[in-house]
Specification:
By secondary structure, this protein is an alpha/beta fold. The protein has 13 helices and 19 strands. Helices cover 33% and strands 22% of the residues. Strand 15 and strand 16 form a beta hairpin. It is globular, with a radius of gyration of 22 Å. Bound molecules: S-adenosyl-L-homocysteine (SAH), iron/sulfur cluster (SF4) and FE3-S4 cluster.
Amino acid sequence: MTNLPKTYRVKSFGCQMNVYDGDRMAELLSAQGMAPALGEDADLVVLNTCHIREKAADRAYSDIGRLRREDGSRPMVALAGCVAQAEGAEAKTRSKMIDLVVGPQAYHRLPEMLAAAARGERPVDTDMPAISKFDALPARRRSGPSAFLTVQEGCDKFCTYCVVPYTRGAEISRPFADIVGEAQALANGGAREITLLGQNVNAYEGGLDKLIRAVARIDGIERIRYTTSHPADMSDALIAAHGEIGKLMPYLHLPVQSGSDRILKAMNRSHSADTYLKTLEKVRAARPDIAISGDFIVGFPGESDEDFTATLAIVDAVGYASAYSFKYSARPGTPAATMEGAVAPEVMDDRLQRLQARLAEHSLAFNRATVGKDITILIDRKGRLPGQMIGKSPWFQSVFVETRAGIGDMIDVTVAKALPNSLGATAKVKVPA
Ligand code: SAH
Ligand code: SF4
Ligand code: F3S
């Protein structure tokens, strides 16, 4: 490899924070004079990877293999994201095709690393420098209607199954003014909705409620969301914000993982089923129509039928509007990986199926309850049918509608139909006065 790449492609996997990082890497590469590649054939491919479960991590390597072109040549390959952080230099021995390895806190150094890679060095940077990468990134310019904004990174919670405290490091909050400045830049660039991001976004040091209030004062920003929250960090001030700030959307992603106190303890979750439910009671008192979403893990070491039944019970008690559920995946280096009581794969499969069936019942019920309502949606993409557009409801449901409105428009619709994962709606025709 001797030439600096002229075109690039960034492929992000995993959570929204990776999507944000992927966008920022793309902006950085563009600022260096490189162009985004159209189609498959880029000079540089950045794989922005996820390490959360075994399958996600393995995917990074199978994707690298597929980058070789028919004529035997290949693009320059940058391994970025959480697999890069977790494996560091070892990644280079796992795949000869990797030209550079850059962790999630070091990607502002990509330009120098690309130069080194072009010289045939295979640089690795998984430092977590004291000076924030955010300060070294170019200013934000263009934005789609719905933008992500990372306000906090890292995690000090150390749930026993989770790699994030190791791949993202300790909890660090960005300065308040920097975030508000970036939100303003995103609004200037076309954003109408901002989702504040963090592995534990509600642990934001300056107070997430105060930050939401500041972003709500920005003209052009109509909707605010935040994710992901930890139950132990749902402060009264943040809960109150849900009843007080009109731009804060009635949606809360609050992972619980399990309904069994025994398992929650083994997971080091620092909340019980009961304290979680009490928190949600307060949230619903502040904002009665709020949609609750959650994450679940089935098959954590030692999980019995009884424990799993408790998980189904908390699902029924909460009535989730939506949820993500996963089979437990043992991650090297985490405390749970060496715990006894592994759950058999077929038991995990069965529990996951039963859990997902139950969750689907609840999301369908939630969606059905919105049929007949007049709501406002923010259009974020085209549908597959001609004239069809897809937007988001305040409760984060995907809404299909036939309209001449375009991406970025907010329109009033009447919900006509509920499916498990989406709504159908008709655009409200304005009756002339
Ligand atoms: N910071 C967030 C999200 C972390 S990762 C939080 O605390 O909720 C997103 C989800 O992946 C987690 O909520 C959990 O449900 C799941 N997850 C994390 N580690 C896992 C593992 N080892 N196996 C299976 N699922 C896992
Ligand atoms: Fe992982 Fe737990 Fe931290 Fe979430 S709170 S990122 S699940 S360690
Ligand atoms: Fe995956 Fe890293 Fe996000 S492990 S879930 S990409 S923080």
